[in-house]
Specification:
CATH architecture: Alpha-Beta Complex
CATH superfamily: Protein tyrosine phosphatase superfamily
CATH topology: Protein-Tyrosine Phosphatase, Chain A
Helix content: 25-40%
Largest sheet: 4 strands, antiparallel
CATH class: Alpha Beta
Number of helices: 3
Strand order of the largest sheet: 1-4-3-2
Number of strands: 6
Strand content: 5-15%
Shape: flat
């Protein structure tokens, strides 16, 4: 899965020292979370796993399951949720699908895009998405050599 920012984040101006402080604090918090979830024979991890199992029941993926979009999905059991999917501009309503969803961030419900790596049938769509939504990776356009046209 690929995650890219749809615009430059406010945190882009952090200095290396700021980033180190942020990462150190994050790892400290992570150690605490792991200890808590590991208590009682891993009951916290079991509870979290059970919640995650329900993710597929959280929304419809009907558009991705349509026969015309089947070849645009890398996997037959991982589809974009209809409610948050990235919709491409298209002259034909039937050509607006890409297996990608908007992910909320600190400033908007559409701060990030999560997408599967493109397959041959979706390479053009992938680059259309990058262009249409001005997808950035850090401070520059994302470029993935192995998927260049």
């Amino acid at each position: 899965m690929h995650l890219a920012m749809s615009h430059a984040p406010a945190s882009a101006a952090l200095t290396p020292v700021d980033w180190l402080d942020l990462v150190a604090g994050t790892f400290s918090e992570l150690r605490t979370i792991i200890r808590e979830r590991n208590a009682n024979d891993g009951a916290g991890f079991t509870e979290q796993y059970e919640k995650l199992r329900l993710v597929n029941s959280m929304g419809s993926c009907a558009v991705g399951r349509e026969p015309r979009n089947k070849e645009k999905n890398r996997y037959n059991n991982v589809m974009a949720y209809d409610a948050t999917r990235v919709v491409l501009n298209s002259k034909k309503r039937t050509d607006d699908y890409i297996n990608a969803n908007w992910i909320p961030g600190a400033t908007s419900p559409r701060d990030y895009i999560a997408s599967q790596g493109p397959v041959p049938a979706s390479i053009e769509d992938f680059w259309q998405m990058v262009w249409q939504f001005k997808v950035l990776h850090g401070d520059r356009f994302m470029a993935i050599e192995s998927w260049c046209l």
